[in-house]
Amino acid sequence: MKGQERIPESELILNADGSVYHLHLFPDQIGDLIFTVGDPDRVPEVSKYFDRVDLTVSKREFVTHTGWIGDRKVSVISTGMGTDNVEIFMTELDALVNIDLVNRVPKPNHTALQIVRLGTSGTIHEDIPVGSFLASETAIGLDTLMQFYPQLSSDQSIAQALQKTLDLKFTPYQAEGSKLLLDQLSLDFSRGLTLTAPGFYAPQGRKLRISAAIPQYLERLESFRLGEKRITNFEMETAGYYAMGTLLGHEVLSLNAIVANRATGEFDKKAEKTVDRMISAALKLLL
């Protein structure tokens, strides 16, 4: 295409068959509504609710099932854990719909996908019970992903206040979930402020044999308030989803099955059933 600079092969890497490198997908192999899970084994637990599955693709931790629910084409894709994987996933997913992969140039018209994370999470408050569902209105990223991207133009006041509360040497980032998708949910999903950690143990205040570097970490988080806002839960992907979705122009929402309560030390003994209930509820509400 004239007037547009081609994206080099080293920057937009494609497989020998022309599919995007990590996801191993072509543009016609995804729906415009995409559910994501961390665990590849959870993909069939979502696609079992599809009326039919037309496509299954697997490469590394990225497993895709695409099919139909009624007359809508939908996909479920696993990402593995962490915002580093989310960055790969969101970038290549966006490339499928917003880059001409043959000519290696951005398309003139932007396509916005709807992307819904179906994940598990732990809460830090006694009044948020295990077995409940929580939709992340806002997420705070404790990882460094956004140090490598343009600064988010949205309100960063919670992230800045949290930096002071935890005496962090770096600045967290703050990003919002899709209001369009949030408004489709029922009262079965409470709303929350999610903290995205760059690990499962010390970054979430767990101690096995190594002491955490931040003293009274969970206590500081539990008592943190900015107006009526409080940190409700921990996980490892949501802020990355929201930040990348904001920069790339997609509607993104993170739904959490609360399977652990850090304040009471409780873990949901029926976690698999809780996740299945959340999946079923989300599909009914968002389709």
Keywords:
single chain, 287 residues, alpha/beta, Rossmann fold, five-stranded mixed beta barrel, two-stranded antiparallel sheet, 7 helices, 13 strands, 28% strand, globular
Main sheet: strand order: 7-11-10-8-12
> Main β-sheet: number of strands, strand sense, barrel status?
5 strands, mixed, barrel
User: Radius of gyration, Cα only, in angstroms?
Assistant: 19 Å
Helix content: 10-25%
SS-derived structural category: alpha/beta
| Gross morphology | globular
- Counted up, domains total 2
Contiguous runs where pLDDT drops below 50 for at least 5 residues: none
Q: If classified by CATH, what would the architecture of the largest domain be?
A: 3-Layer(aba) Sandwich
- Total helical elements: 7
Q: Regarding CATH, which class of the largest domain?
A: Alpha Beta
H/E element string?
A: EHEEEHEEEEHEHEHEHEEH
What's the pLDDT, averaged over the residues?
Answer: 96
Quaternary: single chain
CATH topology of the largest domain: Rossmann fold
How many E strands?
Answer: 13
Strand content: 25-35%
Write structural notes for this entry.
The protein is α/β, with parallel strands linked by helices. The protein contains seven helices and 13 strands. The chain has two domains: 111 residues, Nucleoside phosphorylase domain (Rossmann fold, 3-Layer(aba) Sandwich); 172 residues, 3-Layer(aba) Sandwich (Rossmann fold). The strands form two sheets. The chain has a five-stranded mixed beta barrel. A two-stranded antiparallel sheet has the order 5-6. A hairpin with a 4-residue loop joins strand 12 and strand 13. Helix 2 packs parallel to helix 6.
